[in-house]
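I would love for you to help me understand the pair of lines that follows before we discuss the fold together.
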Amino acid sequence: MLGRKQEINLKLNQIADGLVLLVAFWISHKLRYDNFGGIWTESVKIPPLKEFIWLMFIVVPFTPLVLEMTGYYHHPLQKTIILSLKQYAKTLVMIGVLVGGYVVFNREGDLSRGFLILLTMVGGSMLLGKEYLLKLFIRRQVRLGRWQEEVILVGDSDEMKSFEDKINSNLSFGLRVVKKIDLEKSKPGQLVESLHECSVKRVFFAAKNVSFGKVQTAVNECEIEGIEVWLSTDFIETTVARPSLDAFDGSPMMVFRSAPEATWAMFVKGVFDRVLALFFIIATFPFWIIATIGIKMSSPGPVLFRQERGGRSGKPFRMYKFRTMIVEAEAKKDELIAMNEMSGPVFKIQNDPRVFPFGNFLRRWSIDELPQLLNVLLGQMSIVGPRPLPVNEVAEIQESAHRRRLSMKPGITCLWQISGRSEITSFDDWVKLDLGYIDGWSLWLDLKILIRTVPAVLFKRGAR
């Protein structure tokens, strides 16, 4: 299952899971509505199925999409039931957040706990059962040789052996190499003869150590014959960047990305950012009032602190915070350089003398960060992402690898924020956390960081 075929199979699998959930929805409601087995009190009735249509429109289409995000559909033949259960549990949490958000904003009535428990159990059992039966079916078809596509492998001997080992180790590829051609030793016309002899639909190139001229000639021969060519790109070695193909003015382009690309998941992140920012502004509005009055009474000067920070790719933007320092704080910074507790370009000191008492209170409870929600609404920041540095500190970054933390939109909270930031005094360690976030980014990771942010704020861990 490769390329377009794999994408089609994924979508068919998701549609099938959506239908499975639709049936599970009906069965769960039927069991609870009819009080099957007499488990629930007879006097406690639940509304008819039509009253839960809104829930169906959340659960049925979104569950397969979230399952894809958790990796549920990746390498199904190699997965264990334990891994599938973990992925299903992660999906339940994210769907629960969606349902909870809908209930809060639309003021829906109380949901039947019995119905939700049944839906969780019946839906999960049916999804996992369908996955298990599908794996049995695929393995049987592969063993019988019905779902294996015959292909030709072209390249140099070492790379072809490595590539063939990968094919043989993963049945889900559905491939079988019927002939190998070493371009360094092959005779002119040998590839064309093999194409006629084997009647394959596509040819795989594993030619890392073969000259471009010979690869170009072989690709042209396949092109003339109308045979699909799959060319391995590992002749360009990268450590972090992930290669993909795109087009520019009709010309194929190989793209190497070292940050998450613009997928629908990133689109969802952007939508969630703005929705959550608006929700948090409304929910925390009393703290905005308290902070405004407290700052005005404690220290002369503006309520908000505005500073140019480095955004995505280092592009400057004006970040907002509640002011916690005296107005002359920036002018006095040079006097405190010797007290800096952070390595690298970052300036941070504990018990900063420029912070006035009420400002210290705001910092301890992270209330000073609330105005950054305005930056999120403006699209300059995310709820979760690497913390933005002042533009002068960005300019002082010496190592190019450290600048990769600028490849994603900065955020209000991050791994550094919830890992006891006051205990981390090395800029290298800070960057490692940010790069770990970027390389392993997912909506699920954002959700986990958000959940861990709550106790970090409540227990004032790492706050200065």
